[in-house]
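User: Predict structure, ligand magnesium ion.
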Amino acid sequence: MHTEINQQAPIAAIATPVGEGGIAVIRVSGKGAISKIQQCWQGKDLTAQQSHTVHFGKIIDKNRLPFDEVLVTLFHSPKSYTGEETVEISCHGGVLVTQKVLETILSLGIKPAVAGEFTQRAFLNGKLDLDQAEAVADLIHAKSLKAVDAAHQQLEGRLGDHVKKFRQQIIDATAMVELELDFIEEDVEFANKEQLQKLLEEVDGEISKLLETYETGRLVKDGVRTVLIGRPNAGKSTLLNTLVGNDRAIVTDIAGTTRDTIDVDWNYEGLLFKLIDTAGLRDTEDVVEAEGVKRSQKAFEQSDLVIYLKDLSHSFSNEERNEIGDFQKKAGETPFILIGTKADIELNEEWRTEFDLKISAAVGNNVEALKRLLKDRALENKHYDASSLLVTSTRHRDALTKAQEQVRAALQSLAQGMTGDFLSIDLRAALNELGAITGEITNEHILDSIFSRFCIGK
Ligand SMILES: Nc1nc2c(ncn2[C@@H]2O[C@H](COP(=O)(O)OP(=O)(O)OP(=O)(O)O)[C@@H](O)[C@H]2O)c(=O)[nH]1
Ligand SMILES: [Mg+2]
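Assistant: Predicted complex:
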C-alpha cells in the first residue's frame, strides 16, 4: 500500500563535503524534481525512466552547452529518503564544477535547501520518526565507533519501538479508564484495578531500565571527560602526549609548565576520551598559574574519569597523601585512578599507598595496561555491548523521566482510589511525553532545534 505523500516544491543542495574529491553528489527532492532536472540534462528522457535506476548523461548550462558528465539516480515518490520524488546527481568532485551544477539547478527555479531540510521532509512524510531523524545527525557527528553503534541502534528504530510499546500499553490503560467514565451512571467497572496497576507498574519498570542506560549513552555519544591532575612536574603532559601519540602539550622539567587546560580527543577501541591536561596543583603567587590551578579544579569537578598522577621519583609528603585522599573523596562516584609515574626512576621507597598502576611514559612501561584500565574504569558498572540500546540524548531522557513521573502519579491515584478522570489526566500527560520522543506529538520549537543540528544537504 502506498501512502500518498504531500510533496513540496523541490529543493537542492550539495550532499557531500566541500572540497576536491572523485565525485560529489547533489541531491534534489520535491514535486517535479525529475522533470526539472530534465531541463538541464542531455541524455535519455529522465521523465520516462523507472524508479531506482541510474543514467549516464551530461549537465548543460543555460546556453545548452554540456559542462560535466554525470550519473543521475532517480527515486520516485514515496520510495526515497524524503518520501518525495528525488534525483541524486553524481558529478565530478571539483569545488567549482560542483558549484556550477548546483547553480544550474537553482537557475531552474529550485530553492537551495537549508540545514536538515531533507531529513525534516523525511520526518514530515512519515519516513522517519523524530528519534530516528536525530540518530541521523548523531551518526554524522559521531566521533567514535561506539557512538556510531549507538546512533545506528536508534536509527534502526529500537528506541522508537520501545517507546511505541509503552505508549500502546498506556493507551490500553487509558481506554480501560475512560470507558468506565463513559458508563459512570450505570455503575459498571470496566477497569480491573489489579490489571491496571500491573500494567502501569510494568511500564514504570521498563522506563526505569531504559533510563538507566542514559549514563552510558552519554559517555558513548559525547566521550568520556578524562582529567589528568596532580602536582607540577608529575608527568601529566607527558602522559597526554604519549596517549594521543603526538606532542600536543608542552613538556619541560620546569614545574608549572602547563598553565591552561588542554583538551584533546583520543579514540581507544571505539570509545572517545576527551583528555584534559591541567596545570599542576600547588599554591602559587603567580597570577596566571593560579588561574590555571582554578581551571584544573573546575575540570576535575566536571569530569567522568579522574587520573591522579604521582611522581615516583619524589617522596610522598603527608600533605600530598591527604590531598589525594581529598580528591578521591570529592570524586565520589566518578571513577578515580591513582597512577605512579616515572617508574623508570622510581625511588626505592615503601609507598604505603596502593597505586592502580605504575607507569613510565618515557620508556613506555605499562602504557598499554593503562589504556585498558581507562576503558574498563570508564564503563565500570555499566552494561555495554554493541547491540545495547542506549538512551543518548537529554531530550529523550527528560521526556522519559516526565512520562515515568506521570505513570507513577497515575499509580498513586489508583492506590488512593481516585476516580477515573484523575487517572486519565496523568495517563494522557504520559502519552504526550512519550509521543514527543518519536515525534507523534511535536512543536515547531523542538523541530527547529533538532533539524538545525544537521548540515546542509542532509
Ligand atoms: N624519567 C622520566 N621522566 C619523565 C617521565 N614522564 C615525564 N617525565 C619528565 O618529567 C618532567 C615534567 O613532565 P611534564 O609532563 O611536563 O609534567 P606535568 O605534570 O605536565 O607538569 P606541569 O605542567 O608543570 O604541571 C619532564 O622533564 C618530563 O620529561 C617518565 O616517565 N620518566
Ligand atoms: Mg604539564
